[in-house]
């Protein structure tokens, strides 16, 4: 007989954690959602229908056992819920905060399809793991036995850290190299604190360091140490650098001051929030205070930029996107949060150049668009409306147009490292091994700009493949 505390979706309405009022939350960079009380988490978990084919689980890149940990939460078995959640996800407290659940698990919830409102999966996931940290259920990394094999991981973002965690738990000697002064990659420097407070990331990094993972920070591969040196001194190498090269905009005035890249803008803001001195922020170059801000783009990075500008004290913030709301790639939840905080979205508009005064940007030349026939992906193609151009005033323009891979074979002097026509590294989709034996690659450097949850999945899979390689008889590895 089914537990009477489940299948409550008919009588219990969907209820998200309380969200701080816009006029309060835009004054700081703290997370905007409150934590569930345990009774509320149990109530909301009890709305799960425990369906026979859990679409939430099948649409999660990690295939998290969502119905199981919802049932355990609803029945006051929270420590077990944490164990089930942690079994498939290296960073459930991070995914609970930043995954676009509206496009993944929650967007495919069966009771959502029947009109009852999805189970609040992400908020419960966050609650479970935050409680686990608070109660001491998150155990240190203590391998059952040490191994002699050494693995180098290049990149301390979600893919690299997920692999490092999985390998270290099996006793492998792991060294993580990263160009920044803190580990975490985009989780530390790309995602603002109002979505992911930095102590949440640092807590996991500290756990890894205490568990024996070695971090070599402020290290540029190809400059401070060569890729060949790393490869020669390790039994396997994992490339998890992400994609940091920003797509650019051409056109008149594109070289004017005050036109900045999203990654530079967000990194500066996050560093300031962490207490660092950032010259470009202090000078106003990467600071929106007192400025009319225009952000170009419609993805999650653009949403992070507009909401950051609001908190920095911009006089106005507008987001230009060439399609309409229904066709934007960013999270609808984030778009709503931005609108609540005072961001104005200018749909069906695209830049064709920039106006400037004394070499500083003064506006964006905007072309009005309409949606035409669908392209190969099925999305309608934007078309220019002739004669509808205008100037959108701006003192600061942030380009959030997506990211491309750096030319790693050139930067690292590895011409045999095969890449695709998009510049991403070619890797086997099961093992994640590249064209160089014993060298693996995961995350955005393989997929192109994607989600944290996909990078975690890649990192865990690559760790399994590396361990399998180590456990092969020596002759079969030598034969490759």
UniProtKB/TrEMBL annotation:
It comes from the Bacteria. The lineage of its organism: Bacteria, Pseudomonadati, Pseudomonadota, Alphaproteobacteria, Rhodobacterales. It holds the Pfam family Fer4_20. This is NAD(P)-dependent oxidoreductase. The keyword Iron-sulfur applies. SUPFAM superfamilies: alpha-helical ferredoxin, Nucleotide-binding domain. GO terms for molecular function: 4 iron, 4 sulfur cluster binding; metal ion binding; oxidoreductase activity. Residues 25-136 form the Dihydroprymidine dehydrogenase domain.
């Amino acid at each position: 007989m089914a537990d009477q505390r489940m299948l409550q979706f008919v009588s219990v309405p969907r209820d998200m954690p309380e969200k701080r009022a816009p006029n309060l939350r835009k004054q700081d960079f703290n997370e905007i959602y409150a934590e569930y009380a345990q009774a509320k988490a149990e109530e909301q978990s009890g709305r799960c229908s425990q369906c026979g084919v859990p679409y939430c689980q099948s649409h999660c890149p990690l295939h998290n056992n969502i119905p199981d940990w919802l049932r355990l939460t609803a029945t006051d078995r929270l420590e077990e819920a944490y164990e089930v959640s942690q079994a498939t996800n290296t960073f459930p407290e991070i995914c609970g905060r930043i995954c676009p659940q509206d496009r993944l698990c929650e967007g495919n919830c069966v009771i959502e399809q029947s009109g009852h409102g999805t189970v609040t999966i992400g908020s419960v996931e966050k609650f479970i793991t935050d409680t686990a940290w608070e109660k001491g259920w998150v155990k240190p990394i203590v391998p059952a036995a040490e191994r002699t094999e050494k693995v180098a991981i290049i990149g301390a973002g979600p893919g690299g850290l997920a692999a490092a965690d999985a390998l270290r738990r099996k006793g492998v000697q792991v060294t993580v190299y990263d160009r920044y002064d803190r580990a975490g990659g985009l989780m530390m420097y790309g995602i603002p604190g109002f979505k992911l407070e930095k102590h949440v990331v640092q807590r996991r990094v500290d756990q890894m360091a205490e568990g024996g993972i070695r971090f070599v920070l402020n290290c540029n591969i190809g400059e401070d140490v060569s890729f060949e040196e790393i490869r020669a001194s390790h039994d396997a190498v994992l490339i998890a650098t992400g994609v940091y090269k920003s797509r650019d905009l051409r056109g008149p005035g594109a070289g004017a001051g005050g036109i900045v890249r999203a990654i530079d803008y967000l990194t500066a803001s996050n560093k300031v929030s962490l207490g660092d001195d950032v010259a470009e922020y202090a000078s106003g170059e990467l600071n929106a205070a007192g400025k009319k801000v225009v952000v170009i783009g419609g993805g999650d990075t653009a949403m992070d930029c507009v909401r950051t500008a609001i908190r920095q004290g911009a006089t106005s913030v507008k987001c230009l996107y060439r399609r309409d709301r229904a066709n934007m790639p960013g999270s609808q939840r984030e778009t709503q949060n931005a609108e609540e905080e005072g961001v104005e979205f200018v749909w069906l508009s695209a830049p064709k150049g920039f106006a400037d005064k004394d070499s500083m940007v003064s506006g964006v030349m905007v072309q009005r668009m309409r949606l035409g026939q669908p392209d190969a992906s099925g999305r309608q193609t934007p078309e220019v409306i002739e004669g509808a151009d205008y100037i959108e005033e701006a003192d600061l323009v942030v380009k959030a147009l997506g990211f491309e891979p750096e030319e790693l074979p050139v930067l690292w002097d590895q011409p045999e490292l095969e890449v695709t026509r998009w510049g991403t590294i070619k890797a086997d989709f099961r093992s994640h091994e590249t064209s160089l034996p014993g060298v693996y690659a995961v995350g955005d450097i393989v997929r192109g700009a994607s989600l944290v949850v996909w990078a975690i999945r890649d990192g865990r899979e690559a760790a399994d493949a590396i361990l399998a390689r180590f456990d092969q008889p020596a002759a079969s590895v030598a034969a490759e």
